[in-house]
Amino acid sequence: MKHTLYIIVALLSLAAHAQQEDAWQKWGPTEGLKGGGFIVRAGYVVGGTTPLPLPAEIRKINEFSPRGGVSLGIDGYRMFSKRWGVSLGAHFFWEGFHTSADVKNYYTRVKRDEDVTDGYCTGTNVTNTEMWGVTIPLLATFRISPRWNVSFGPYLSYYFKQTFTGEVYDNEDGIGYLRVGSPIGPKIDADRNTPFTYPDDFADNMRPMNVGIEVGFDWKALRHMNVFGLLDWGLTNIWDPKFEAITFKMFPIYGTVGVAYRY
Amino acid sequence: MNKSSYWLLTIPLFLASCIQPEQENTECDIEAVSLHLENPSDFFFHDYDTLMTVPVTEDVVYDIVFKIKAEAEMQCVPTSFRITDKASLYKIAEDDTETPFLNGSLVDFSNEQVHRFRVVSEDKVWSRNYTLSVGHEPPCEGYMSFDFESYSLDPSGKYYVWEGPKFFNDEEWKNGNPGFKLSRSSAKPMEYPTTPVAGGGPDGSACVKLETCDTGQFGKMVNMRLASGSMFNGVFDISNALKDALKATLLGSPYTYKPTQLRAWLRYEPGNVFQNRDGSKMDGVIDEPDMYIVFYRNEDEYGNKIQIDGNDVLTSPHIVGLGRLPHHFNEDGSDKLTDNPIHGVTAEWQEFRIPVEYRAEVDPDILEARGYSLIIGSASSWQGAFFKGAVGSKFFIDKMQLFCDEKETEQETPQI
Asked: Is the CB of A113 inside 8 Å of chain B's CB atoms?
């Protein structure tokens, strides 16, 4: 009786194993476990370009909302074994955000007609940025199960176009002013009708490239369709090192969720 | 909310935890000074004069001077300061030692002593210096003439300022140049709306030129496309210059004579294109200069200060006397823009007389107690307050005289 039980268990586990092997085959690359292919992705991008950590000049975040947020891309991948592979892609994106924060004694540069004035702002600071570009990720992929992939690796982003605009005006308490030049300079009040505005050339001081780390997952929802999510964490300051009007480093951190077609 | 959703509450907590501890303040201003007097009227014409709001300017050392009655002698007075939050106030002795100043401490104002103060910011990095003293109100003169020969660059070297009579604030004629500097900091002194013209006067001496200037991109953005050249007595409050240019123009100085007539040599060249506030061209409208003299009651029935500014300089109910270059007006009293101005000022120098018409009696006791203020104002675009006018309108002014009640007959017009 005992032997019979052993045999049944062994048979069942063999069957299960076979079934699992079938699953790895079924959801794997088209040419067996070591093959390659392409994945065409479409996603929604959410994120922000943020100083890390937040500088002490930022006292309160009032609002945060994404702008744009579209990514279209293609990845080529190759599996070297049942679990490991690499992928290389090109993701075209339009991403950005709008934020409103209360600031105190925040050093920046504001537009004064054709001139600019540097000074220390206190009040509400609104910032908008949008970026159009392409991200080239080079990732190691790992199959944790037949239908789940995770990937990790560096990426390089190149921006075709960037915008960075913003203004400072009075906060909820009606306080909004600029100390021209230094904290003891003339104090100029501003409100929503007459805000201090960032000069038009802020975006010209943004670096055209960014390097960072991408992590992602793919879930094979259907035979040819994936649901995916990925996070691009920029490690390069978006500002040119020579740019003095923003005193802290800012990094793009954007996530994408979407669907993909798998060839 | 079910139990599993409670983790959502941690998101704002997480975001809040990203906010760094607040930095120490860097600002260090004296915002206001008040003198605690049992009988303010022994020293001041108005009770409200015991409290002085201190403007934030670029001066390296800002002099706070309380003007007291000519015959008054002030001794030790408990004095309080309102300074930037968490800053510290020190009194500097003659040997340069600094001791913390406690509000309500006595300050000895006898013999017009000048006391030095220093405010240090909370972070101890920044400080500002002030002096505090009392000065005796200078007597007003019942006849004044202004030749505008005495002018110099302001401390920042950006624009010109003109010397004025002693009873004017800072003993200067004021104008909108400090505001223009905010929007066009690269402008040269001669590119400002109010400039001197050496040799430009009717007798070959210097005169003043007010010119309506384009405020450029910035002005367009805030819908203030032009800046009329201006000249007035009072205070230009720089902190309000961008937010509300009219409110920033605080007009008038207390005056102890009843003005009757303003005379001035004037000439005017209107700009070519009259534009509306939105920048659109207004056909059939020619720009006009403005010059006015306003006499107003500077205290209300409750003892509160009346401060006329650019918004109500010609309309305030506190005005008792008004004289102005002639203009067309609609039946409802509003300004009428036309192509046939009646002010009479041409491109050639002429002398004009602007009589003051009184709509209320002037009380001699109140007059003596500096209860009325005098405004003498000029503009290169009479609608400049509404940001309407013609860029390039030029108003030249020279040899101004003010006649008052009892003095008018004693003076003669200087020969040109």
From this structure: yes
